[in-house]
TrEMBL record:
PANTHER family: ALDEHYDE FERREDOXIN OXIDOREDUCTASE (PTHR30038)
MF GO annotations: aldehyde ferredoxin oxidoreductase activity; electron transfer activity; iron-sulfur cluster binding
InterPro entries listed in its UniProt record: Ald_Fedxn_OxRdtase_dom2, OxRdtase_Ald_Fedxn_C, Tungsten_al_ferr_oxy-like_C, W-dependent_AOR
The protein, known as: Tungsten-containing aldehyde ferredoxin oxidoreductase
Entries under Pfam families matching the protein: AFOR_C
Organism, scientific name: Candidatus Methanogaster sp. ANME-2c ERB4
């Protein structure tokens, strides 16, 4: 049985210009067998396909593989070489799309945020800002896509408001994840419900306590990141996100950069 959901379909389907379900499943199966990340693999293969298309890499780097959109046989061969790393090109791909682009070019379409390859969301500025400022650089850190869908689809808000919304959500999620609550169930486990559940086990906490704990955990995560050399100032924005229309319109680069600066002020330790 091949396990798949929306994320692999995006990463290995639409991201690679594929439409053949059987061939998609063959690639998905091989990636499962090899035990590598499907989202990163899809983004890396998409970058390599466009890089070869634009001539910044050749058959020499790919060792004779012609990467064409939707050519799943070529993608299966390429993924095997990413695993084996027989030359410098495949070694670079194995280290991620940002590393490969830093060596060969094509940074504008190297779709990564904070070092992580892009998830399936191009819903608006909230999704990308959320991935950039999230402690793990994950779309699940603060659900920026949800802000796009539920707020920005209805009205414009300032970068300050957007950052406040994202940080509040991410801080609350620290509490949820610490309690081993699935984020898909976050709508059920509201603060009052959690407090009642904890009370049954003799933990007498209030909703204020829960929010405080979440904020403290988030602060500690950022303290660790900064100690290890991370800086929001060094985050890069892939140019492709400004070329492609989102459901809330074209993205404004200055709006996103302003939001990052605001976040930097708010998480300053």
């Amino acid at each position: 049985m091949i396990c798949y959901d929306y994320e692999p379909i995006y990463a290995l389907g639409s991201m690679l210009g594929g439409s053949d379900a059987d061939d998609f499943l063959k690639l998905m199966d091989q990636i499962d067998v090899w035990g590598i990340d499907v989202m990163s693999t899809g983004v890396i293969l998409a970058w390599a396909t466009e890089a070869q298309e634009k001539g910044i890499i050749s058959d020499t780097e790919t060792m004779g593989i012609k990467l064409d959109w939707g050519n799943y046989a070529a993608y299966i061969d390429a993924v095997r070489l990413i695993i084996e790393q027989p030359n410098e090109f495949y070694k670079a791909l194995a280290r991620g799309v940002l590393h490969a682009a830093s060596m060969y070019g094509g940074e504008d379409y190297a779709l990564a945020f904070g070092g992580n390859e892009m998830p399936r969301y191009h819903t608006g500025p909230g999704a990308h800002i959320g991935a950039l400022i999230g402690a793990r650089h994950s779309h699940l850190d603060n659900a920026g896509y949800s802000v796009d869908q539920n707020i920005l689809s209805e009205k414009q808000i300032s970068p300050e408001e957007l950052v406040e919304t994202l940080l509040a959500e991410e801080r609350w999620r620290q509490t949820l994840s610490s309690l081993v609550i699935c984020f898909f169930a976050r709508g059920i486990y509201q603060p009052d419900t959690i407090c009642k559940s904890l009370h049954s086990a003799d933990f007498n906490l209030t909703p204020v306590d829960l929010y405080r704990i979440g904020e403290e955990i988030h602060r500690e995560k950022y303290r660790f990141k900064i100690r290890e050399g991370f800086s929001l100032e060094n985050l890069r924005l892939p140019g492709r996100i400004f070329e492609t229309q989102s459901p809330v319109g074209k993205l404004d680069e200055e709006f996103i950069r302003r939001a990052i600066r605001i976040c930097q002020e708010k998480v300053a330790l």
